[in-house]
Design brief:
Blueprint: H1 3-35, H2 40-87, H3 105-152, H4 158-190
Helix pairs in contact: 1-2, 3-4
């Protein structure tokens, strides 16, 4: 059963309880008036008027509740659609915030702030990946270049050879450090927080 139907049933039940309470007090009033000696025609007029009032107020209340609930459910459905988009990694849509919609105003405002933060995080992640690719590529190119020099020129003097080897070792360390940092970031990024 959808939330909309459950809410309608709940509102109808509340109005039915109110109807029963009014009916009870109406019968109690008629009983008291009968004890006080009022004629039966007087009771019939009161009974008819109160019954019509109860039916009219119940119908009015049910219709009003249904209209308000439909408006509220439209906003809830809009929020639900955007939450599904966010769950799929789409952070490009905000929820329009009507100042008239006081029930959801603060929640929508906070929700839109969350979307802005997610957009910012996505942009930072793209920048990180771009910078990381550059940082990762630089040591590889350096190692490759110096290794090729060592391979292609076997008669290098020992001092130049050691300088090239030292650069290769430093770049390899730099590459290992980047690799470790990437694995740590990957581990932190894949960690799920489950709240029961």
């Amino acid at each position: 059963i959808s939330f909309e139907i459950r809410s309608a049933v709940r509102f109808s039940f509340i109005f039915f309880i109110v109807f029963l309470l009014i009916l009870f007090f109406m019968l109690l009033t008629i009983h008291v008036l009968a004890k006080l000696g009022y004629p039966p025609e007087f009771f019939f007029d009161i009974y008819t008027m109160m019954a019509l009032l109860v039916v009219a107020s119940t119908l009015f209340g049910t219709i009003t509740a249904f209209i308000l609930m439909r408006k509220s459910m439209a906003k809830v459905n809009e929020i639900r659609k955007i939450i599904n988009k966010i769950a799929n990694g789409e952070f490009d849509e905000m929820i329009e915030n009507d100042e008239l919609d006081a029930l959801y105003f603060d929640m929508i405002d906070d929700f839109n702030k969350m979307i802005t933060e997610l957009q910012s995080n996505t942009l930072m992640k793209k920048d990180f990946i771009s910078n990381f690719s550059h940082e990762f590529k630089t040591p590889i190119v350096s190692i490759k270049g110096y290794a090729e020099l060592l391979y292609e020129t076997p008669n290098l003097d020992i001092e130049t050879r050691n300088t090239y080897l030292k650069i290769i070792i430093e770049e390899a360390r730099r590459l290992a450090k980047l690799s470790n940092e990437t694995m740590l970031l990957s581990k932190l990024d894949s960690t799920e927080i489950i709240d029961h």
